[in-house]
């Protein structure tokens, strides 16, 4: 026992702290377990007097019921929005970040400052005027309306600028001597080497887009143009009405489907998530 | 200590020293192509991040329903806001949200980061579990917690019941709804504070902690006299970020209680949403957004001032 502890750099006093901490971590993930567990129960087994972590009988009926809603369409809308917006944001952000780090031109520092200063403006300030503008030009409930306002995420510029600041100058000079213009330099040399910031920016911005709530809620009037989070939010059983209470199992199936892409992405690319976020200190 | 995050960059970039550095700058030929590279990002940035702020400020001084033309009414919207008891309620609520959520996130986040930083077996798993709620959407947070906080059959009241606490009407009573939403928010928001603090802890030189150990400092003394002073810059950044994000609280409120019962869990942004979408008063909604923006700016300035004073 002592050998086992020593090999892990622990003393006996550490054991209760270790066990306690791991229990807290377990409790912290309990809501997810409860979500999945409820989603697999028959509606009549959901409202029980005692806690049943493992359903006494399993069913996938709730998931079938979820698909009675236009959930395929919502998923498609969410994917179109998130993929387009993320691709543009990461590519344009990489270009801007590269320019801010490697090119010399008047106003470079000021431009970067303006980008950063814009982070002080909460997006909530911009949504009402933007909604007015999109309604006026007849673009409410369209993909343009969902995508365009989400492209310019400054986090992307920031993460690429920080990366390219420490980019070896020799590579750049060699490329210039070979006669490569700035676009070829960026596309063929800089960008392929920027894998790490590109993945970090992509996963984080994709997740922000996938989860985005206020703007899609405001700008989509048609059921068929809703995104996943907005569509599924309507599954909320109206608090206090007993008939709606039965809906918990379907609601949990809905949010399980909704949370799957971001959770899977996070588990697979955790390193990039955590590095990117602790570097950027961003918050949706 | 290596400063982290955009806020820190913003602060250091605005310092006079930085301005002098860039003014001296290397005398390299000007790369005009740089403007082209930036234009692709700058165009949507100007159209969708900058222009709406100015347009919104104009809208705030008008009466604008979606049909018809806007009518300039000066400060009328702001005057109305000061007389509107729902505005006062929303701002009172957001102060209460901040009082619960900010310390909750900071203290728990610090505790979790200290634990994971010990590097015990399975601490990688603990890190994953602590951060995971941060990556899901408000809809997931909202619906899962509406179910957990259900008065009669919810998980939380069930657990509390087993230690003899009678059911709490978390989301259905005006006394508790704000607390219920706050609990869900802490679960959701903690991940960011946690990873920022963990990264900062990993940056503390090992020798520093070891030296304190050799000097006979116990774990609490080490935390108080060695670790916390080192964490100061990151702690203040975490508090600022969380405070700003809590002032903007909306989605979880919308999904969980829709501001109710009787406005007891509403927030400024939730009220702004109601004014715009339900009552169709876009000018008034814009004025409310500007008011919140001013509050956020004030909070940031005061925070920076306090930070400088304490140094």
Describe the structure concisely.
The complex is a heterodimer of chains A (284) and B (311). Chain A is built from 16 helices and no strands.
Give short descriptive properties of this protein.
heterodimer; A: mainly alpha; B: 311 residues; two-stranded antiparallel sheet; 14 helices; 73% helix; globular; disordered N terminus
Word description of this protein:
The complex is a heterodimer of chains A (284) and B (311). With 284 residues, chain A is an all-alpha fold. In chain B, β1 and β2 form a beta hairpin. The N terminus of chain B is likely disordered. Chain B is 73% helix and 1% strand. At the A-B interface, α2, α4, α5, α6 and α8 of A face α1, α2, α3, α5 and α6 of B.
Largest sheet report of chain B: 2 strands, antiparallel
Span of the ends, CA to CA of chain A: 46 Å
How many angstroms does the end-to-end distance of chain B come to?
15 Å
Query: How large is the radius of gyration of chain B?
Result: 24 Å
Report the portion of residues of chain B in β strands: under 5%
Mean pLDDT of chain B: 87
Helix and strand string of chain B, N-terminal first? Answer: HHHEEHHHHHHHHHHH
Structural class of chain B: mainly alpha
List the chains of the largest interface with their residue counts. Answer: A-B, 114 and 111 residues
The radius of gyration over CA of chain A amounts to 24 Å
Structural class of chain A: mainly alpha
Return the string of H and E elements of chain A: HHHHHHHHHHHHHHHH
The low-confidence parts of chain B are 1-5, 10-26
Low-confidence stretches of chain A: 239-243
